[in-house]
Write a structure and sequence with these properties.
Blueprint lengths: L2 H4 L6 E5 L17 H17 L9 E11 L9 E10 L3 E12 L2 E16 L4 E2 L4 H11 L4
Antiparallel strand pairs: 1-3, 2-5, 3-4, 4-5, 5-6
Amino acid sequence: MKAEDILQYKFNHGHPIQVRYNDIDLAGHVNNAVYHEFFDLGRTFYFKEVLGEKPFTYEQNVVIVQSNTTYVKEVFLEDELQILTKIIRFGTKSFDMLQALVANTDEGIVLTTYNITTFVCMNYKQQSPQLIPENWKKKIQKFDSVQE
């Protein structure tokens, strides 16, 4: 996926991100490891809004199996940021989440970073992958219009 393709998606979920002083490295921009904390916040609020208050249990959970981040533009302490999140693909036991960290500027929304994460549904009690729960699929499809 190319950076210019990312903002062509319709994102129905966004969450503001505050850059903290300790997020900044010696070069004066956000350290690359901090971006994953931003992505974690975005997906936490996404799952809560779309799947409900406490969607995960010991028997019905997810595990990250792959995460790919592309850094497009530096982020600085004063930047006004928002993390956009959506599900873009369903498999039978896995799904892909696209997240875009954008800065609100005088020129409009600017893409700074994006991430595609693959999740596998997991039953930790049985220590095995499981099918995506149908109620999750229905809620996500209604929210994000994801096709199977």
